[in-house]
Amino acid sequence: MTPGTVMEIGRQAIEVTLVVSAPMLLAALVVGLVVSIFQAATQLNEATLQFVPKLVTMFLILILAGPWMLQYMTDYIQRLFQSIPQIIG
Length: 89
What we know:
The protein is mainly alpha-helical. It has helices spanning about 5-40, 45-80, 85-89.
């Protein structure tokens, strides 16, 4: 196993992590921004007002995108396991 192979596997793992986590993180970012604008407009500073909508949004995104996220990770893991003979040999 060469250092280039290790770097390629690491790069692919980081790429999969970013792609899989992006829908939930972007949804939380958008909801947080909307709630922050609402709080600034109404001068209502309550911590749970930030937490609850983000939690609900992330839960909904997980329900909607969860199968795709799981399939994407499963495909990556299968490709990684299938490439073990080439990596070792």
